[in-house]
Design a protein that fits this description.
The structure is a homodimer of 239-residue chains. With 239 residues, chain A is of the alpha+beta class. Chain A is built from eight helices and eleven strands. In chain A, strand 4 and strand 5 form a beta hairpin. At the A-B interface, strand 5 and helix 4 of A face strand 5 and helix 4 of B. The first copy, chain A, binds a DNA duplex (30 and 30 nucleotides) through helix 7.
DNA sequence: CGTGGCCTTGACAGGAGTCAAGTATGGTGG
DNA sequence: CCACCATACTTGACTCCTGTCAAGGCCACG
């Protein structure tokens, strides 16, 4: 099938669809948008009328505090819907921007609402992704609040690799990882200098390789242990 | 009306309801549960078949890391639905327990699902609360990741007072605040000792009074400033 | 009146931030 | 093809915020 609707493709990944669902999904119009590195897709305060589906690359949701310090509150890879919340919340409370070059599909709210009303199973799947994102957010609160820096960093790397694997975007224990050390400092709440030192500790322990936008986990069990990582919070469904 | 259905009461707070909606809400059976301090209502790993509506007191959602350190990821006051996520996620990923004495209503999943399917406006309201909780969670990530300890603490206190006010549970700038300093350390990711020192700084600046389970914000503007607080993330609707 | 929970205080150590400088790396234009 | 520049990464020195340890005080309750 030539250039299938990526929305349809995404839904097919987790569940077999009825004829009606497939038809409805195919009919949803998408607007493809290419993003350059750092380019914002949504800004805090925006009133949006469409949702995003990530097609390629990586985006990050972030907030900035009064002193101008930025915190990344979520990262999004291909297949993620970073701002489904805009369906029910009037104003965006965070920025969403590309980490590196990325491509997204913009889906009109009205079309998504129609889809959700007509097809409860598709609505349920959408809501499930919102809830998983919320679960990830809670785990990040734990990560930032309680875990020491090396554990915190290892945990983040575990999550990234595992999510990439589940999305079919990893090659064994290797995946693209476009976050710079500055970005990682915005994820982990540590200073850039400390990020650098912690990464070197992880390298020295032969747990990871991380260079040129590529992450290679040399010792998954070891990284999981150092990172106090346990995947339940990702609510991954096996099939 | 004698002892109205608290679920109905909660929904009436934000929107006037249709006859059908009122009738449907009135018919939903609730099971009232009284909780003693620290008593868990949900545990991580549980498969639940009902949701919670907080009727009185305060609950907290928390996670524990591998070293046994507990992080509170959300606090819930009367009118909140702490675990709507259980409607679509099989297993709980966090504990939910009473902070002090509390009372909750337990609502069967099936009844809520029926309600949501039959009354899209009620479903939308429920989802909106889920999304606001997620927005709060993102703000907490920012708070934990970027803000220094005094700002962090002030921010938490601002959020608590404002939410209590919106819920009609405050008396001017005073409200019940059953979180102990240990609890506040679990919220802010700081040590108990440091919580104590930071609270004293806030008191010395004549910003707050906090004792015997009661918070009094003496200088709201001042606390907002110290706490880098801005309420947008709570998505409060005026009416 | 004793006991436990909660709060307070002091001393000390160390993890992590900041400042500052220097080293790759990769893209661009002359 | 090479010089140049921007971006990203690395390293060292120093400071200080915050955690830990330890002890003690204050209440409420049985």
């Amino acid at each position: 099938m030539l250039s299938a609707n990526p929305l349809l493709t995404q839904f097919q990944k987790t569940r077999s669809l009825s004829q009606a669902e497939t038809a409805a999904l195919s009919k949803v119009p998408l607007r493809r948008v290419a993003l350059r590195p750092e380019e914002p897709m949504v800004r805090a305060g925006d009133h949006t009328t469409s949702c995003i589906l990530v097609l390629d690359g990586m985006l990050a949701t972030s907030k900035v505090d009064g002193a101008g310090r930025r915190q990344i509150t979520a990262i999004h890879i291909a297949g993620d819907f970073p701002d489904l919340m805009s369906l029910h919340l009037d104003l965006a409370d965070s920025d969403i921007r590309a980490v590196a070059k990325a491509e997204v599909a913009s889906i009109n709210h009205d079309h998504l609402r129609r889809l959700a009303l007509d097809h409860p199973n598709l609505a349920a799947k959408l809501w499930r992704t919102v809830l998983v994102d919320a679960a990830i957010s809670r785990e990040w609160v734990l990560n930032l609040g309680q875990r020491e820096s090396m554990t915190r960093m290892a945990h983040v790397l575990c999550e990234i690799l595992l999510r990439m694997q589940v999305a079919g975007l990893a090659n064994g224990n290797t995946c693209r990882m476009p976050l710079t050390q500055v970005n990682l400092s915005e994820v982990t709440g540590m200073s850039l200098v400390h990020v650098n030192r912690v990464l070197q500790q992880l390298r020295r322990k032969d747990l990871i390789t991380l260079a040129k936008g590529q992450l290679d986990v040399l010792n998954w069990a070891g990284l999981v242990k150092v990172g106090d990582f346990s995947a339940e919070y990702l609510h991954i469904v096996k099939h």
